[in-house]
Every structure is written in C-alpha cells, then in structure tokens.
TrEMBL record:
InterPro entries reported in the protein's UniProt record: Cof, HAD-like_sf, HAD-SF_hydro_IIB, HAD_sf
Name listed for the protein in its UniProt record: Cof-type HAD-IIB family hydrolase
Pfam families cross-referenced by the UniProt entry: Hydrolase_3 (PF08282)
Alphabetized UniProt keyword annotations: Hydrolase
GO molecular function: hydrolase activity
NCBIfam families registered for this protein in UniProt: Cof-subfamily, HAD-SF-IIB
Segments passing through the bilayer: none
Taxonomic path: Bacteria, Bacillati, Bacillota, Clostridia, Lachnospirales
Top-level taxon in the UniProt lineage: Bacteria
Family matches, as Gene3D superfamilies: 3.30.1240.10, HAD superfamily/HAD-like
Organism encoding this protein: Bariatricus massiliensis
Length: 264
C-alpha cells in the first residue's frame, strides 16, 4: 500500500514553469489525503514560495525545499543542511570567472526566508519576483553574506550547456553540481539532498521504501528517485534521471489516479 508520494515541481508536477497548480491536481492531492496517503512537494524552490503555491489546499503539507536542505512539516524542521563557507567562497570565485568568460551568470544564495543576489539585471529580477514569486534581496557583495546557507544556484538564460561543465570542473570533488531546470544549476549541500530529506520524512512517519512513490525530471531529483520503492521520470527528463527511474511518463496526474483507484 502506498503511504507517501513525493514529487518534484518544475518540469514535473508544474510544467512550462507555470506558477499555479491546477484544480484537478489539488483535488487529487486532497483525495490522497482522505485515503491516508501523504503528498510531499520536493523542490529546489524557496520554502516561502512553496507554501504560497500549495496554500489553496487549505491544510499543511510537508515540504522538501532548497533541494532537501530544508524539510519542514507544521513548522517543525525535520532535517536541514548547509553549504560550508569555504565552498561558498569557491563557488563565488568560479562565478566571477564564468562572468568574465561568458558575460552572464545570475547567482542566488539561499537562507530560510529569502534569496540574496548581487544581480541588477532587470530581466532576472523580474523573473525572480514576478514570474517565480520569490522573496529576493539584492546586495552589492555576495561574499559578505555570513548567514548559514542552504543552497547556491546560478541562472544562465542561455541554458546549462556552458554552466554545468564549467562549474562541475571548477568544483570537482568539493560539491555536487546538478541541473535543476533548463537554465539553472544548483549546488547541493554535502549533507543534504532531496533523498536525505525524504528519508527523514519517512523515518518520522514510519514509512517503508516500498510504500513510497517519487516523480522527477532533473539531476537534483536522482537521490530521491533512488530512495523510492517506485520511481517515475518525466518524458522530458535528463538522461541521468531516466536511468534511475522505473517508469517514464508524460504526466503525474494519471499515475495519481491509478494510485487512488488501487486503494479502493
């Protein structure tokens, strides 16, 4: 019997970077709850962004945010992680090289309640505020941030073809670099990812591997998919994700309906 369903958002439950979830999907999630099945959004997104997105449900759900660096249920932090200050400095050093070479690269450093960025690019700030609905604070110097950092991420609107190999090479052996969207790379905290957060949630509620289903499409979903008893990759997923999935699908909703039908 399935007891927990964890799904990535962008590119998986939410397609084409939309900022709302359909009424049909919310209805399915409510039906799952009525059958005793927990639904968990698992994303690289900001915690505040995710809470706002799922507010129409009318009840609290567990959240895996910031690629697993923050797992929260009913305001209780079940697990957390952070990137060491020395690694952040190395990421920023590499960022300065990338900007010098490619003349782009918009960085965010994430703490629990906001993103910090040194970008003053109007397109990027409009995207972060008005398209994504994030809480973002512009500061002149990212090196000056001295708070515990949950995540670092870099956006290049030209895509990840330059981003991923450049930062993978520069940070080799120090931190995992993963695609999180077609134009984003994320730096995954050494002690936290979507898989470690999901494991903490499963332990908290006594849920076994075979009782868990996961959906994803990007490299930052791999650990979560490997942990689940049954895993699904989207047909638009990157090859690494498909390799670790049991099934490839076009849409999450039909699978949710199948799970509901099996519980009757």
């Amino acid at each position: 019997m399935i007891k927990l369903i964890a799904s990535d958002l962008d590119g998986t439950l939410v397609r084409n970077y939309e900022q709302t979830i359909s009424t049909e999907t919310f209805d399915l999630i409510r039906q799952l709850k009525d059958r005793g099945i927990m639904f968990v959004p698992a994303s690289g997104r900001q915690y505040a962004n995710m809470r706002r997105l799922f507010a129409p449900l009318g009840y609290e759900v567990p959240y895996i945010s910031e690629n697993g660096s923050l797992c929260i249920y009913n305001d209780e932090i079940l697990s957390t992680g952070q990137i060491p200050p020395d690694t952040i400095r190395h990421i920023l050093d590499a960022l300065m090289e990338y900007r010098s070479k490619f003349h782009t690269g918009h960085c965010i450093l994430s703490v629990k309640d906001t993103y910090y960025t040194d970008s003053n690019d109007a397109k990027f700030m409009d995207y972060m505020h008005n398209t994504m609905g994030n809480i973002v604070k512009q500061i002149p110097d990212l090196y000056a941030v001295n708070e515990p950092l949950l995540k670092a991420a870099i956006c290049d609107f030209n895509g990840t073809k330059d981003l991923l190999p450049f930062f993978t090479d520069k940070l080799k052996g120090e931190i995992r670099v993963a695609t999180s969207a077609s134009h984003w790379i994320d730096f995954i905290a050494p002690n936290a990812n979507k898989g470690t957060a999901l494991k903490a949630l499963m332990e908290r509620f006594g849920i076994r591997k075979e009782e868990c289903v996961c959906f994803g499409d990007q490299q930052n979903d791999v650990e979560m998919l490997k942990l689940a008893g049954t895993s699904y990759a989207m047909d638009t997923a990157v090859p690494e994700v498909v390799k670790h999935a049991d099934h490839v699908i076009e849409s999450v909703e039909p699978v949710l309906k199948e799970i509901l039908a099996a519980q009757i």
